[in-house]
Amino acid sequence: MDAPSQSGTPVIHLHKGDLPADLTFTDAVAVDSETQGLNLNRDRLCVVQLSAGDGVCHLVQIAAGQTSAPNLKALMEDAAVTKIFHYARFDIAALKRWLNIDCTPVYCTKIASKMVRTYTDGHGLKDVVRELVGVELDKQQQSSDWARDELSPAQQGYAANDVLYLHRVRAALDEMIAREGRQDLVQACFDFLPTRVALDLGGWGEVDIFHH
Q: Is residue 116 part of a domain?
C-alpha cells in the first residue's frame, strides 16, 4: 500500500474497471459505492471506493455495461477481510445487482450506530464522523453525475472521504457496543444483511415482512 500524504491530504488512485491484481488488504477494508441514483434495478453502479484506513483511497470506475470485476470480487468475497460499510444494505445490493458480488463478512457502521448511539437520530455518515472522529465531511458532490468518463477532483475527494474514516468509526463504535454488551445483537444484524439485500432486489424493499 502507498504511504499516506504527510500533509493530511488523501492519496487517491483511480482505476478503470477493476482493482490491480497485486493490490492487497489485510484484515479490514472500508468500502463505499456511487450509483446513478437510488433505484437498485435502474441506476447502475458507477464507482467503488476502498481504503485500508491509512489515508490512501482506491477508486474503481465501473463502465456502462460492465458485469464483472474479478479482482474486486475476490477481495469482497475474501472471508479473511472484513468489509466496513456505512449503510451496507445499499452498497452490497448494488455490488450484487451489477457485478454479481457477494460481500462477506460485513460490518455496517450505520447499523452499529443505531444500535448504540440511541441518544441521537443522527446516524448519517457526516453525523457519525463528526462525533466519533472529529472531522467535518463535505457532502456537496453527493448528487453529482457519477457516470461521467472523467471524475472531477471534487468528486474524487468526496468519494475518498466516504471511506477514509470508517476504520476509526468502527473502532469507536466497537468500544461503545462492548460497553453496553450488545455485541451479539449487532452481529446478528450484520448476519441478516444478505437476506435483507435479497429482499430488496426481489421486490420487497419497502415492505416490513415482520409487520402484523
A: yes
